[in-house]
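User: Could you go from structure to sequence for me? I need the amino acid at each position, not a summary. Structure tokens:
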């Protein structure tokens, strides 16, 4: 536990480069920082920043950037100073990062990017944060127009009005038809509860990802091509 705290401290919280005599300045880089943290692994799973260098296609992770706090739902373009320890600690990282400038900050998705498409559910997370079997989800759909979220659930059709403010989305109460389907009603109620808690919407190629207020991924869809 002490080693883990040391790693997090060195990577994320070294104020004003307190160990400047042990720092070697390497280079400046431009990073695209993803709008939500992701799971990474040290001695145990933890939340890390996910970023992509401006000249690269693949994303990578880091524990943090000195002077930078991620606001969920926003995409950032950052100028970052990359340095290394001259004598790196045996239980810590080799590199440290410092924010130089926020070049751009914008909501991760515009409403127009998700409208007038049909999205089919591929993952739905339950309380233990494990996804459900994809076979159970294959007929659940979501569509978004200028006023509503609507679609077909595990048993019934449903709809809810929504509003957006900056990067956040807010759904009104979900209305649906009243058909009863044995053994699928519990799944449907879980789906409606998750949908009601949506706060952030992100597109990733042909995928739609919905996150809650705590920035947990809760629902994931695949675009159904016409």
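Assistant: Here is the amino acid at each position, in order:
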């Amino acid at each position: 536990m002490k080693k883990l705290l040391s790693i997090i401290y060195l990577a994320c919280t070294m104020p004003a480069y307190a160990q400047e005599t042990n720092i070697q300045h390497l280079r400046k880089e431009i990073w695209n920082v993803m709008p939500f943290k992701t799971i990474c692994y040290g001695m145990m799973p933890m939340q890390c920043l996910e970023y992509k260098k401006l000249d690269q296609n693949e994303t990578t992770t880091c524990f943090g950037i000195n002077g930078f706090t991620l606001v969920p739902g926003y995409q950032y373009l950052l100028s970052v100073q990359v340095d290394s320890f001259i004598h790196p600690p045996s239980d810590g990282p080799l590199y440290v990062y410092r924010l130089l400038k926020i070049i751009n900050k914008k909501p991760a998705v515009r409403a127009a990017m998700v409208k007038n498409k049909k999205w089919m559910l591929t993952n739905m997370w339950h309380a233990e944060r494990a996804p459900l079997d994809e076979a159970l989800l294959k007929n659940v759909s979501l569509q978004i127009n200028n006023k509503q979220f609507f679609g077909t659930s595990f048993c019934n059709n449903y709809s809810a009005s929504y509003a957006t403010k900056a990067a956040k989305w807010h759904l009104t109460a979900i209305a649906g038809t009243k058909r009863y389907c044995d053994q699928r009603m519990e799944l449907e109620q879980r789906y409606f509860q998750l949908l009601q808690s949506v706060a952030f919407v992100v597109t990733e190629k042909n995928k739609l990802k919905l996150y809650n207020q705590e920035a947990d991924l809760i629902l994931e869809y695949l675009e159904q091509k016409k």
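One structural detail worth keeping in mind: Residues 7 and 92 are 5 Å apart (CA to CA).
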